[in-house]
Amino acid sequence: MAKAAILLQMAVVVLFVSCGGEVSPQELAAVSAKGYYEHLISGEYEAYLSGVNMADSLPEGYREQLLTNARQFMARQKDEHGGITGVSVVGASTDSVAGHTNVFLLLSFADSLREEVVVPMLEVRPSEWRMK
Asked: Rounded distance, CA 102 to CA 104, Å?
């Protein structure tokens, strides 16, 4: 399922480019980060974790801890704020010193609270971005 979502995101980008638009690396990173967080919000924890750089080579015990952390985070957000209802991209900028692109996402909660988070993204292959 995670691969299908990533393919859909890439199809949207390809469609945009084919219509004459130019997509920057920052925009590609932002689309990827937003997609990973949409998986998290939807409870698709495996798909969310697939967006972490080198997630496929994590030891199984550590992988399970990360999945448990994601579940607990979402449960806590539901208890404290009624859950996260949406995510949108605020912006992105490349940090050439650190070697990654920071994507700024705005999380919207059921209780009307909004929180901006910074997601460092790495380009692991041309046009393929993962969370650092």
From this structure: 6
